[in-house]
Amino acid sequence: MGKTTHLIKLSAGTESVDSLMDWQGMRRAQTEDGLPRHVTRMWPRREQEVLNGGSIYWVIKGLIQCRQRILRLDPVTGADGINRCALVLNPEITRTAAAPKRAFQGWRYLAVADAPPDLPGNRAEEDPLPPELAGALAEIGVL
Length: 143
What we know:
Blueprint: E1 5-10, H1 17-24, E2 37-40, H2 47-50, E3 55-60, E4 63-77, E5 83-89, E6 94-100, E7 107-111, H3 131-139
Parallel strand pairs: 1-3
Antiparallel strand pairs: 1-7, 2-5, 3-4, 4-5, 4-6
């Protein structure tokens, strides 16, 4: 089996993991087969590594808070005629340990070793901490 790499992306306009889930539940955020997707301008050059078990880690309110497995990459042509990449995602969202992340443009590669761990099953359903508190705790290594 080959190398795996992840992507990391700001979830612009998202207030929480729940609001990300609500957005992805809308028809316009889905593929024809009903899977959630995120359309991006750039196609990952490390496509095989991303498709070898990679996930997209979502940054919400300055914190990495969750991830979704990337199932496939679909070509998409916008109304403007520009070719783009649709990251087709597993509908299951996995909450992760909160990890602070400064704002950045587009998506970036995220090494497996640098990805925050998934929350244990018994913590995944807990009410999330306010982003400011979670960020402060993550910065000092408590979360």
